[in-house]
Amino acid sequence: ESITMQEDAGFYFSTNIPTENIMKNPSFQARRDDILIVTYPKSGTHWMQAIVNLMVENVDDLSERYKQYQYHLEYTPHQVMDNAPSPRVICTHLPFERIPLDFLREKSRIVLCVRNPRDVAVSYFRFCANLKDIDYRGSFGGFFNLFITGKLPYNSWFDHVFSWLKVARSGRQNIHVVRYEDLKQGFLSTVSDLACYLKVDTSPELLEKIQKRTSFENMKLSLSDYLREMSINGQSVIFRKGTVGDWRNYFSPAQVTMLEDVMEEWGLHKNKSISFYDE
Ligand code: A3P
Fold first, then answer.
1. Is this structure's pTM higher than 0.90?
2. For residue 145, what are the CA distances in angstroms to 96, 115, 150?
3. CA nearest 57: which of 218, 210, 180?
4. Does residue 70 have its Cβ closer than 6 Å to ligand 1?
5. Whose CA is nearest to atom 14 of ligand 1?
6. pLDDT averaged over the chain?
7. Residue 126 has pLDDT above 80, yes or no
8. E runs forming strands in 87-159
9. Shortest-distance Cα residue to atom 22 of ligand 1
10. Which of 46, 74, 93 maximizes ligand 1 atoms within 8 Å of its Cβ, making it the mutation to test the pocket?
11. At residue 277, does pLDDT exceed 80?
């Protein structure tokens, strides 16, 4: 059981991504007021993109601007981003080493969103099984092995997350880390910290409205035809369940232990699913 993808020097990426878009892109022009949302796939990218766009615009509805300008570093033609108004909110799944250097030179704002790797594994599995482009037919067990060994687009969760956490912790770049689980459990305080980092002025009232507007149910309702058409089952490939802990419905005891062993190798504490990156 495997997934068809491209490879560059051990880095795996989807077949529909132009190779130059995963190569540091020396010609990409970042802007100081860009906001780069960094995630491993299935860690809440769309949710964070909606939240940040609303915060930046200081509005409580997903405006035309949001619908038109959902930039993805690997997919959106660079010419489109070059001509886009500031501030641009751009998402990427690239590891730190493959980010266009200009983001670092410009000291653009960078938000790293992380989610419990166990839930990410399940979400990624369901995504690959439901996405027409990938059409993964294997079992969760087969997918779990790909997840553990990093034989997936964007390699392993660990390679990705630690490439960024290392930099965030070193203080080389001012990177703001947000956990999916914290957004779920303490939206308002998590998002007001984010507003501080982004230096956007938002009232507590507006943040409450943004919370309602970006709830799982509301975002699922405003699903675009584009996302629907990408799916095999006619449901959304993105808005599936939106909960914490769905992994318990999928993992065998042996898989729990296997993932815990890998987490421990990376310095993550055992049995602490919530503080999975705290040390
Ligand atoms: P599940 O598959 O566990 O449901 P990404 O946007 O990075 O592809 O992440 C998709 C995951 O985020 C999916 O997880 C999806 O349901 C969840 N998600 C998307 N919007 C959400 C929201 N508004 N609130 C909570 N979870 C959300």
1. yes
2. 24, 19, 8
3. 210
4. no
5. 242
6. 91
7. yes
8. 89-92, 109-114
9. 216
10. 46
11. no
